[in-house]
Amino acid sequence: MTTRVAIVGGTGKLGGVIREVVASEPDFAVHATLSSRDDIASIAGADLVVDASTPAVSIDVVRAAIERGITIVVGTSGWSAERIALVRPLVEAAGTGAVFVPNFSLGSVLGSALAAAAAPFFPSAEVVEAHRDTKVDSPSGTAVRTAELIAAARVAQGPVLAPHADQRARGQQVGSVPVHSLRRPGVIARQEVLLSGAGETLSIVHDTVDSAAAYAPGIRLALRNALTVRGVVVGLDSFLDIGIGAPRAAGDAGRA
Asked: 64 and 12, same structural domain?
């Protein structure tokens, strides 16, 4: 049986990679390709919706999929734990599934998990992320997810040390973790987590140098697993046996 996939934001860079992955899978087919400005009603008849639109449009895409009882994979940035919590009851009431993926790169997922595993052992943690200058939102969804995981891992220890956090140049705090965003031409994606203690610093860096090659395995993983999801799932780590016990962010129930 062929799974019909509607891709919203399918005319963008990430959307193009998603289209290629769907087309390469023998039991998946592109049902509709929509830009962020197209009529969302075109998703009707799809078995699965993949959202790669914009932060401003994404909420409407998610609601439209839920209302039609269609499982959705959300690859759009801007979905913090607080925002996901607002749509969780709608997903559960509809009896469908919603998979929120801050980053389709498996290396990025592992980097965030490693940062969460190390966070309880260091009093200070900061995230520096860089993306191309055309990215419209800051901080990135990956950086928000990483900071939320770090905060969840430090429940027993309390918030990280972030002196002078009231100063704008100290970044945006997410779960007490300062997050700094760079937007530069010639960059695809880069994230560095700096964990510091007395006399030492642990740096965890992930670079994306080819978006198609980096994202395709994670997109394929999300497509395959989304079909059996009921409720809300956050992060590709929900489908991976990472084996280092990375804690979940507050409000993230994983498979629900």
From this structure: yes
The two tokens of residue 174 are: 């997410």
Are residues 118 and 167 both part of a single domain? yes
Q: Which two tokens stand for residue 28?
A: 């998946």
Structural domain harbouring 43: 3-104+211-239
User: Could you tell me the CATH number of the domain that includes residue 188?
Assistant: 3.30.360.10
Among this protein's residues, is 180 annotated catalytic?
Answer: no
pLDDT given at position 97:
97
Instruction: Give yes or no: residues 110 and 228 share one domain.
Output: no
Tell me which of 13, 31, 135, 206 is the catalytic residue: 135
Residue 206 among the catalytic residues: no
In a shared domain, residues 194 and 183 = yes
CA angle 153, 238, 7 (to 5 degrees): 125
Residue 19 located in a structural domain: yes
**CA 187, CA 209: separation in Å to the nearest integer?**
8
- The catalytic position among 131, 164, 180, 206 is 131
Q: Give the ranges where the chain is alpha helix by DSSP (H).
A: 13-24, 55-67, 81-94, 106-118, 141-153, 211-226
Gap between the Cα atoms of 240 and 83, Å rounded: 24
**pLDDT, tens digit (0-9, with 9 covering 90-100), for 35-53:** 989 999 999 999 999 999 9
pLDDT in tens, 123-165: 999 999 999 999 989 999 999 999 999 999 999 999 999 999 9
